[in-house]
Automatic annotation (TrEMBL):
Pfam families: Peptidase_C12
Catalytic reaction(s) noted: Thiol-dependent hydrolysis of ester, thioester, amide, peptide and isopeptide bonds formed by the C-terminal Gly of ubiquitin (a 76-residue protein attached to proteins as an intracellular targeting signal)
One cellular component term from this protein's GO annotations in UniProt: cytoplasm
GO molecular function: cysteine-type deubiquitinase activity
Keyword Cell membrane: no
Protein name: Ubiquitin carboxyl-terminal hydrolase
Gene3D superfamilies: Peptidase C12, ubiquitin carboxyl-terminal hydrolase
Site, Important for enzyme activity: residue positions: D190
Family membership noted in the UniProt record: Belongs to the peptidase C12 family.
This protein's UniProt keywords: Hydrolase, Protease, Thiol protease, Ubl conjugation pathway
SUPFAM superfamilies documented for this protein: Cysteine proteinases (SSF54001)
The UCH catalytic domain, residue ranges: 13-233
Length: 236
């Protein structure tokens, strides 16, 4: 009888992306996203600053520090939702993060994958999303881990930010997640979590996402390293 192979595969480590809309726009446009759609900085979370965003917002990407308070909340939230068995739309495409420091790319994929019909044209992202739709979450892990094109696209972009790129082995305590609206519900998509989080009815993506982002900030009032960018339709 052959011995079962119990060796775990080595963890891939990427160089982190910075929260720079120019870098993110270069990634999505190379990968087939319509040039009418671009990431822009969210200048602040007050109503007058949020009102400066373009009227059509497809996704909000949030960058925040991973702290003890956050990790405690995350564990409690997952335990609660496992018991609750929340309802998740079949149109939500969720990717689990297994590649170290890939949270930027995962959030970026999440921002386009569930409403890709309007946004994503022929190219790498369309290929990945169309395959992923018929896959389990674990099969999607293999899809991303085995995509050399995605790794190359990420690597070229990670060195183009305004600040010096950290090494792939550096310990990074900042994390990207994504908020989208599907079937009039707000979803939080975080590759470190077991599943999407359904935050309930949503009539305005920016307002609903801001409420959740402010909850993140309230859990860690001594932290200041919070940032957001939004994927918007910037041209008609």
């Amino acid at each position: 009888m052959a011995e079962e192979n119990t060796e775990s595969k080595p963890i891939q480590r990427w160089v982190p992306l910075e929260a720079n809309p120019e870098v993110w726009n270069e990634i999505i446009h190379k990968a087939g996203v319509d040039p009418k759609y671009n990431y822009v900085d969210v200048l602040g979370f007050d109503p007058e600053l949020l009102a400066m965003l373009p009227p059509v917002v497809e996704a909000v990407v949030f960058l925040f520090p991973i702290t003890e308070a956050y990790e405690k909340f995350k564990d409690e939230e997952e335990a609660h939702l496992i018991k609750l068995e929340q309802s998740i739309s079949p149109d939500v495409v969720f990717f689990k993060q297994t590649i170290a420091n890939a949270c930027g790319m995962i959030a970026l994929l999440h921002s386009v994958a569930s409403n890709d019909d309007e946004i994503v044209g022929p190219g790498l992202f369309n290929d990945i999303i169309e395959q992923a739709k018929n896959m389990s979450v674990d099969e999607r892990v293999d899809l991303l881990e085995n995509s050399k094109e995605l790794a190359q696209l990420h690597a070229s972009a990670a060195t183009e930010g305004q600040t010096a790129a950290p090494c792939s082995d550096d310990s990074i305590d900042l994390h990207f997640i994504c908020f989208i609206e599907v079937d009039q519900h707000l979803y939080e998509l975080d590759g470190r979590k077991l599943f999407p989080i359904n935050h309930g009815k949503c009539t305005n993506l920016v307002e609903s996402a801001t409420k959740v982002m402010k909850q993140y900030m309230a859990r860690d009032p001594n932290e200041t390293n919070f940032n957001a960018i939004a994927l918007c339709k910037t041209e008609d």
